[in-house]
Task: inverse folding
C-alpha cells in the first residue's frame, strides 16, 4: 500500500510514496489518501510519528470518491468538519492520547461495513459503521495536530494456518481478536538423527542437566523437557529443572514458560494479559496528570472523551469468574473497586507488581505510556465535533524502551531407531528448529552393522534422509520477500563426541574441519541447503568439569534462529489462550482425548459460543499439532468426527505399540498362528488388537480410525455393516524370501511405467501408497492383494488385468508399475496368454488412481513431494560399463517423461530420436471433442451401397482423405483391418467390397450407425491408434481443429461411471449441445490438466455426474471448485445415491442446487427404465435450454433405430456394454504362469472370443416407434 499523489498542500511524500509527512510549520492541510481501494477484511497498518508542538489527534476515515478525480486544491484545511460533510466521505477523530509516537495503527473493514481499529495490535473498537462494502473505498487520513507523519508498514496477517483455511477462518480469527490479543513466542526444538549418537545427552546439556553415561535409548518421542529464553540475555530457564538449578524455583519457572509450560504456564500467560490491560487503564489518568503539570494543554478531543476505555471492557468480558470482586491490597486502595470485578486474585497480584516496577507492559512492539483518554469519538458524516485550534508547545518524541520477549521451547527428542520413522513423519512441523545430530567419530560413508533394519545406511545417508524428510514435509518460505534466500524451518547440524577424535586440540580441530568439509561438499546443491544454519557445531556432552563452551554457542544459534521465524510474536486471541489453558488442565489430569461436545463445553466456559469459531479454533490447533481432530464435513466416520486427541505423543505410543508389536512368551497362547501371520505377512488379526490395546480398549475405534487416516493400516474386505476380521499393516511386510515365488514374470506384452520421486522415496511413503492401493482395490472389486512383500505387492485391477507395485532399490527412488493382461485357465492356454496386452483403459485407470493419491498425499502430508511418471527409453543405448547394447541393470536404465511421449509422436533422448508408438499403445489419448452435432449428413445407407460417393456428395473432405489413406494401407493397416477391429463379419465386409470406394463406405457406415456424434469420431480414432495409423488420425485432428466453437457443456465425472456418462453425452449432442468429456481416461499428467482447464473455462454449463466415488475424488473436487470459481452454471445429476448435499468440500457448492436423479427410475407404468431415462434426459435438456441456445442445425433424430436388412441377424440392438464372464467365487491362486488365474469354480458363461458390442455390426437404420418395441420383444 502507498499514498496517493493527491494530498494536502502541507504534505510531502517520499520517493516510493510509503511515508507522508506534514510540515512542522503547520498543524493542518494534512489530508492524504491510499493509492488503491481497501478490500474487505484487508488489513492496513501504518506507523505514526507525533510532536508536542501542536495539539489534536489524527483523523481516520474512508472515501468512495476516487482520489484520482480530485486535485490538491480541492482538499480543505481540515477533514472534520469540511471534508466529512461531502457525500462519499466518512471520517472519525481519534483522541491524541490513544496514539503516541511510534505506535502502529491497524485498520480493516469487516463484512458488516465496520472500520475496525487497533493500536499496537490492541483492539480499540469500530471507529466507523455502516460503510458501503459494495463500493470501492480508499483510506483517508488527516495528519492533524500532533501527528506529523504516517508510514505504511506490513500488517500482521493471521497465522498462516488460519489463512490456509480460507476467508471464513480469517473472519472468525479477526472476530476473536476483538476481545483482546496477546503476542505469543513459542516453537519446538526437534532433535533427530541416528540411534546412539548422543541426542538425549545433547538435550541434557542444553537444559543444564548432568551427563548420564548410562543413558537409556529413547523410545518413540520424548517430550519431557521444555525451556525458555529471553531476547535480552542468553540464560535459558527450564520447565523441568536441571541438576544445576534450584528446584525450589520450579513452579515460578513454569509460570515464565507461558503456553508450553503446562497448566501453570498457560494460566500465568492469561493472567499476565489481563493484568497488562488493567495497568494500562491505571496509567492513563496518571500520565494525563503528568502532562498537565508539564504545562501542556489537553486537547479538546481528550477533554470531551467521557467513555469508559475499551480495554477494561475486554478484561471483564473475558474473565472466567462472574460477579466477584477480588481482594484489593492496601497499595491499590485508590483504584476503583469495579476495575477488579470478575478478576482472579493472581491478576491483582500481578497488577501490584507491575505498578511497583513503575512500568507499563506492552503486548506487542515498543509502546510508550498513554495519556488520559484511551478512547476516541465515533463520528459519522451526519454529526461532527468542533475542531480545536492547535496550541504550540515544546516538541519532544517519546523514548523507546527495549521490551523483553520470552521464547518458549518445547523439546522433542526423536528416537533414532529406524522402526519408528514411519510414525515420526506424522508429527513433523514447520514451527520448529531442527538439530541434526551425528557422531563425529563415525566414518560418514561406512555403514553400521546394528542398522541392518535400514539396509545398513551410512551416517551420510541417514543425515540426507532426515534433511530430505524435513524439507519434504515442512519446508516453506520464511518471508514473502523476493530477496528471501532462506527456507523455514531452520536446521542446525551438530557433531557429538568431539573429544574422542583426538586428545590433541590442534589435531582435533583439523579432524572436525575435515568432517564438516566433507558434509558441505555432499550437501552442495541439495534442495534442503537453504534450511541449513551455518557454521556446523562440534560439541562434547561428557565434560569432566563444567560445560563445553560450544554448548553455549549452540544455545545462541538456536535462540537467533528461533527469534527470526515469521510466526514469532503472532497475536493470539485472549479467549483462545484461555481455551488452551482449559485443555492443559485436562492433559494434566491424564486425559488423552475428549469428545467434541466436551470441547464445545470447554469453549463455552471461556466465552466462545459461536460454532464456526470453535471449529476454526480446533482446526488451527490441529494444524499446529497441539490437538488432533479430523472433524470436517467430509469425515464419514462419526466416531472420528466426534473425537479430539489431546496428547499427540500418546497417539505416537499407540501407533508404536502396533508397528512394533511382538508376541508374548506364553507357551499356552492360542494366538501363535495369528502372531506368526502378522510377523511374516503383515496381516493383523482383530483379536490381537484386544491384547495390544488392552489398557485402552474403549478407544479402539478411534485409534483404528486414526491409523487408517494416517495410512498405517487398511481393513480387510467385509460385507456391509460388519467389522473387519483382520487388517493389512504395510510397514510390517517382510522381504521376499523365495525368488521362485515372485508374483509376476517378465513379459514383453506387459505395460511397464514408473513413478520417479526425484531423489527421495522413503519407505513410509511406499507403505502409504500400498495401503491406499489396497483400500482402493477392496472398495472397487472386493479383492484383497494377492501378495504383499516389503518392496513389492500384486493387486487385482479388473476382470482382465492385474498390476504390481515394486519399489526399486533405495538408491534409485522410484516405483515400478507393471500392468498385465490375465486370463483364466479355463479360457486360454499359456501360448495364447503370451499374446495378451493390457487394455489402454486399464493402464489409464491405474495411473489416474496413483497420481490422484500422490497429489492428495502431497497436499495433506508431504508438501514438497516431487514426482513424475516416466517410461523406460527403448532406444537401446549401449552400456560401456557392462558391455551390453541394451543393459537392463537398474543403474544403467534411462527414462522418458510419459506425458511428453503421449503428446508427441517422436521424442529425443541422449542417444537418438525415439518413436513413441510402442508407448502410446498402453494409454488412450485425450482428444478435444470439438466435432459438434451431426457429424455426417443424413444418408440412406441401404440405397447408397455400391457407390457411396455418388449418393453422398456432401461428405466432409476429412472423411474422404482418411478413406484414401486407408485404401493404400499395408496389410493389417488398411480398411480391412479396421473393419475387423470394429467387429464386422465377413458378410458385411463383402458388401463393402462391392462399393467403388470400400474404405469410404466403411467410415460412413461406422459414423452413422454408431450415433453420428463426436463420440463416434473418438471411437474411430481409438481404433486407428491401435492400428498405428497416426497419419489418418492427424487428418481427423486437423479437421477437428478447424471448428472454432468450443464445447458448450463440460461433463465432470468419475470414470468408473463412464458408460452411463457416454450415453448422457450422446443424448445431449443429438439434442444440439456440444460436450466435452475425458473420453480417453488419461488419468493424469500436465497434458490432460491443461485440456480440462481449457474445457471448463470455455464451457457455459457444467454437468456434475454424482456418484459416491465422484464425491471423494480429488480430481473431481478440483474440477468443480474451478467451475464454481469461474461462476459456471452447475447442474448436478445423481447417478448413484449419496447424501445431499454430499459431505466434504462439494457441500458448499451443491447445498443450494437441485439435482436430477437418474436412479429410482423404471418399474412402473409399463414403460420401464428406458422410458424413464428418456424423461430424465428431457429434463436435463430443458435445464440446459435456460442457459444455452441449442444449435438446431446440428439437432437430429434421436429415436431408436434398427436395420431392416439385419433384423434377422443373430445380433440384437442394445445399449448395454459387453462385460466378460464373472466368476462366482473369488478364490484365486497362481501356479505355473503368474499371468493365468487358477479358478476352482465354474463360470455361468464362457466365450471363445471377444464379442464386440452388437451395434458395431449394424449399418442400415429405420426409425422404430415405441409400439414396435413390444412387437420386437
Result:
Amino acid at each position: 500500500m502507498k499514498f496517493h499523489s493527491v494530498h494536502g498542500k502541507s504534505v510531502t511524500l517520499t520517493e516510493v510514496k510509503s511515508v507522508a509527512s506534514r510540515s512542522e510549520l503547520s498543524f493542518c492541510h494534512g489530508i492524504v489518501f491510499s493509492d488503491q481501494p481497501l478490500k474487505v477484511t484487508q488489513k492496513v497498518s501504518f506507523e505514526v510519528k507525533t510532536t508536542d508542538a501542536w495539539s489534536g489527534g489524527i483523523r481516520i476515515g474512508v472515501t468512495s470518491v476516487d482520489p484520482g478525480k480530485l486535485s490538491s486544491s480541492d482538499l480543505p484545511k481540515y477533514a472534520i468538519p469540511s471534508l466529512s460533510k461531502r457525500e462519499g466521505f466518512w471520517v472519525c477523530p481519534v483522541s491524541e492520547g490513544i496514539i503516541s509516537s511510534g505506535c502502529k495503527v491497524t485498520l480493516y473493514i469487516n463484512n458488516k461495513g465496520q472500520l475496525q481499529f487497533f493500536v499496537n495490535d490492541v483492539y480499540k473498537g469500530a471507529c466507523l459503521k455502516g460503510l458501503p462494502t459494495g463500493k470501492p473505498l480508499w483510506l483517508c487520513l488527516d495528519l492533524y495536530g500532533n501527528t506529523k507523519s504516517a508510514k505504511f508498514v506490513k500488517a500482521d496477517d493471521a497465522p498462516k494456518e488460519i489463512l490456509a483455511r480460507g476467508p471464513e477462518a480469517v473472519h472468525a480469527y479477526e472476530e476473536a481478536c476483538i476481545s483482546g490479543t496477546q503476542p505469543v513466542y513459542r516453537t519446538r526444538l526437534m532433535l533427530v538423527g541416528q540411534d546412539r549418537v548422543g541426542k538425549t545427552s545433547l538435550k541434557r546439556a542444553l537444559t543444564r542437566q548432568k551427563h548420564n553415561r548410562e543413558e537409556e535409548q529413547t523410545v518413540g518421542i520424548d517430550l519431557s523437557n521444555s525451556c525458555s529464553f529471553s531476547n535480552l540475555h542468553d540464560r535459558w530457564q527450564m520447565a523441568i529443572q536441571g541438576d544445576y538449578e534450584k528446584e525450589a524455583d520450579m513452579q515460578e519457572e513454569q509460570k515464565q514458560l507461558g503456553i508450553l509450560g503446562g497448566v501453570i504456564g498457560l494460566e500465568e500467560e492469561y493472567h499476565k494479559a489481563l493484568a497488562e490491560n488493567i495497568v494500562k487503564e491505571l496509567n492513563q489518568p496518571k500520565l494525563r496528570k503528568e502532562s498537565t503539570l508539564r504545562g501542556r494543554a489537553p486537547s479538546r478531543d481528550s477533554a470531551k472523551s467521557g467513555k469508559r476505555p475499551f480495554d477494561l471492557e475486554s478484561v471483564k468480558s473475558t474473565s472466567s469468574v462472574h460477579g466477584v470482586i477480588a481482594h484489593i491490597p492496601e497499595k491499590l486502595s485508590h483504584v476503583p473497586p469495579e476495575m477488579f470485578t470478575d478478576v482472579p486474585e493472581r491478576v491483582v497480584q500481578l497488577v501490584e507488581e507491575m505498578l511497583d516496577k513503575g512500568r507499563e507492559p506492552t503486548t506487542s512492539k515498543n509502546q510508550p505510556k498513554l495519556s488520559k483518554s484511551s478512547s476516541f469519538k465515533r463520528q459519522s458524516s451526519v454529526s461532527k465535533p468542533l475542531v480545536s485550534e492547535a496550541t504550540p508547545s515544546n516538541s519532544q518524541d517519546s523514548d523507546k524502551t527495549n521490551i523483553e520477549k520470552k521464547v518458549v521451547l518445547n523439546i522433542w527428542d526423536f528416537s533414532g531407531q529406524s522402526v519408528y520413522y514411519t510414525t515420526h513423519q506424522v508429527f513433523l512441523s514447520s514451527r520448529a528448529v531442527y538439530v541434526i545430530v551425528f557422531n563425529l567419530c563415525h566414518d560418514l560413508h561406512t555403514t553400521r552393522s546394528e542398522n541392518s533394519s535400514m539396509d545398513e545406511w551410512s551416517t551420510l545417508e541417514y543425515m540426507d534422509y532426515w534433511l530430505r524428510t524435513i524439507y519434504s514435509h515442512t519446508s516453506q518460505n520464511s518471508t514473502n520477500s523476493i530477496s528471501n534466500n532462506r527456507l523455514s524451518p531452520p536446521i542446525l547440524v551438530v557433531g557429538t563426541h568431539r573429544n574422542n577424535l583426538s586428545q590433541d586440540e590442534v589435531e582435533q580441530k583439523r579432524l572436525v574441519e575435515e568432517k564438516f568439509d566433507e558434509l558441505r561438499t555432499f550437501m552442495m546443491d541439495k534442495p534442503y541447503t537453504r534450511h541449513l544454519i551455518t557454521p556446523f557445531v562440534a560439541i562434547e556432552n561428557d565434560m569432566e568439569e563444567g560445560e563445553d563452551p560450544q554448548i553455549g554457542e549452540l544455545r545462541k544459534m538456536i535462540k537467533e534462529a528461533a527469534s527470526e521465524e515469521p510466526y514469532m510474536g503472532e497475536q493470539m486471541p485472549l479467549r483462545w489462550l484461555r481455551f488452551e489453558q482449559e485443555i492443559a488442565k485436562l492433559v494434566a489430569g491424564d486425559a488423552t482425548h475428549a469428545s467434541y461436545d466436551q470441547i464445545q463445553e470447554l469453549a463455552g466456559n471461556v466465552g466462545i459460543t459461536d460454532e464456526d469459531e470453535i471449529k476454526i479454533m480446533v482446526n488451527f490447533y490441529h494444524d499446529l499439532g497441539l490437538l488432533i481432530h479430523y472433524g470436517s464435513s467430509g469425515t464419514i466416520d462419526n466416531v472420528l468426527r466426534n473425537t479430539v486427541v489431546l496428547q499427540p505423543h500418546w497417539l505416537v505410543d499407540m501407533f508404536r505399540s502396533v508397528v512394533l508389536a511382538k508376541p508374548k512368551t506364553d507357551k499356552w497362547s492360542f494366538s501363535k498362528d495369528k502372531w506368526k501371520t502378522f510377523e511374516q505377512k503383515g496381516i493383523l488379526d482383530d483379536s490381537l488388537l484386544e491384547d495390544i490395546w488392552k489398557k485402552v480398549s474403549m478407544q479402539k475405534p478411534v485409534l483404528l480410525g486414526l491409523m487408517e487416516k494416517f495410512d498405517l493400516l487398511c481393513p480387510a474386505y467385509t460385507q456391509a455393516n460388519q467389522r473387519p476380521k483382520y487388517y493389512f499393516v504395510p510397514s510390517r511386510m517382510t522381504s521376499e524370501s523365495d525368488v521362485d515365488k515372485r508374483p509376476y514374470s517378465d513379459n514383453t506384452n506387459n505395460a511397464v511405467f514408473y513413478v520417479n520421486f526425484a531423489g527421495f522415496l522413503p519407505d513410509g511413503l511406499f507403505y502409504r501408497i500400498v495401503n491406499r492401493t489396497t483400500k482402493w482395490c477392496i472398495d472397487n472389486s472386493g479383492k484383497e492383494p494377492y501378495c504383499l512383500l516389503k518392496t513389492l505387492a500384486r493387486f487385482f485391477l479388473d476382470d482382465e488385468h492385474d498390476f504390481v507395485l515394486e519399489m526399486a532399490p533405495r538408491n534409485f527412488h522410484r516405483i515400478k508399475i507393471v500392468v498385465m493382461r490375465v486370463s483364466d485357465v479355463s479360457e486360454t492356454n499359456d501360448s495364447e496368454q503370451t499374446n495378451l496386452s493390457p487394455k489402454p483403459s486399464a493402464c489409464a485407470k491405474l495411473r489416474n488412481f496413483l497420481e490422484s493419491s500422490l497429489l492428495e498425499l502431497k497436499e495433506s502430508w508431504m508438501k514438497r513431494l516431487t514426482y513424475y511418471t516416466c517410461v523406460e527409453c527403448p532406444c537401446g543405448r549401449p552400456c560401456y560399463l557392462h558391455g551390453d547394447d541394451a543393459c537392463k541393470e537398474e543403474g544403467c536404465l534411462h527414462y522418458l517423461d510419459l506425458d511428453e511421449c503421449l503428446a508427441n509422436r517422436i521424442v529425443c533422448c541422449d542417444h537418438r530420436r525415439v518413436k513413441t508408438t510402442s508407448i502410446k499403445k498402453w494409454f488412450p489419448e485425450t482428444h478435444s471433442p470439438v466435432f459438434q452435432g451431426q457429424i455426417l449428413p443424413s444418408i440412406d445407407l441401404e440405397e447408397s451401397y455400391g457407390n457411396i460417393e455418388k449418393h453422398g456428395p456432401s461428405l466432409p473432405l476429412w472423411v474422404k482423405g482418411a478413406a484414401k489413406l486407408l485404401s493404400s494401407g499395408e496389410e493389417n493397416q488398411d480398411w480391412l483391418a479396421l473393419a475387423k477391429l470394429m467387429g464386422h463379419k465377413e458378410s458385411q465386409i463383402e458388401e463393402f467390397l462391392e462399393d467403388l470406394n470400400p474404405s469410404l463406405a466403411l467410415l460412413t457406415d461406422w459414423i452413422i450407425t454408431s450415433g453420428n456424434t463426436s463420440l463416434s469420431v473418438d471411437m474411430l480414432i481409438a481404433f486407428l491408434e491401435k492400428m498405428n495409423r497416426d497419419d489418418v488420425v492427424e487428418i481427423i485432428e486437423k479437421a477437428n481443429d478447424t471448428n472454432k466453437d468450443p464445447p458448450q457443456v463440460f461433463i465432470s465425472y468419475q470414470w468408473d461411471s463412464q458408460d452411463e456418462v457416454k450415453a448422457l453425452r450422446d443424448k445431449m449432442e443429438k439434442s444440439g449441445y456440444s460436450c466435452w468429456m475425458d473420453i480417453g481416461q488419461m488419468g493424469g499428467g500436465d497434458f490432460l490438466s491443461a485440456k480440462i482447464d481449457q474445457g471448463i473455462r470455455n464451457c457455459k454449463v457444467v454437468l456434475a455426474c454424482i456418484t459416491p466415488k465422484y464425491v471423494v475424488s480429488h480430481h473431481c473436487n478440483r474440477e468443480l471448485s474451478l467451475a464454481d470459481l469461474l461462476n459456471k452454471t452447475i447442474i448436478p445429476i445423481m447417478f448413484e445415491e449419496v447424501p445431499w448435499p454430499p459431505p466434504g468440500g462439494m457441500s458448499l457448492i451443491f447445498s443450494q442446487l437441485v439435482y436430477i436423479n437418474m436412479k429410482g427410475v423404471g418399474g412402473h407404468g409399463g414403460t420401464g427404465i428406458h422410458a424413464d431415462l428418456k424423461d430424465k434426459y428431457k429434463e436435463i435438456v430443458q435445464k440446459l435450454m435456460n442457459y444455452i441456445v441449442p444449435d438446431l442445425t446440428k439437432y437430429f433424430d434421436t429415436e431408436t433405430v434398427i436395420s431392416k436388412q439385419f433384423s434377422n441377424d443373430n445380433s440384437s440392438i442394445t445399449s448395454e456394454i459387453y462385460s466378460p464372464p464373472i466368476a462366482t467365487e473369488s478364490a484365486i491362486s497362481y501356479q505355473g504362469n503368474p499371468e493365468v488365474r487358477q479358478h476352482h469354480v465354474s463360470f455361468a458363461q464362457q466365450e471363445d472370443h471377444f464379442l464386440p458390442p452388437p451395434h458395431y455390426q449394424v449399418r442400415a437404420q429405420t426409425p422404430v416407434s415405441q409400439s414396435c418395441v413390444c412387437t420386437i420383444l
User: Anything to note?
Assistant: The radius of gyration is 37 Å. The chain has a mean pLDDT of 75. The chain has 40 helices and 46 strands. Residues 262-293 form the longest helix (32 residues).
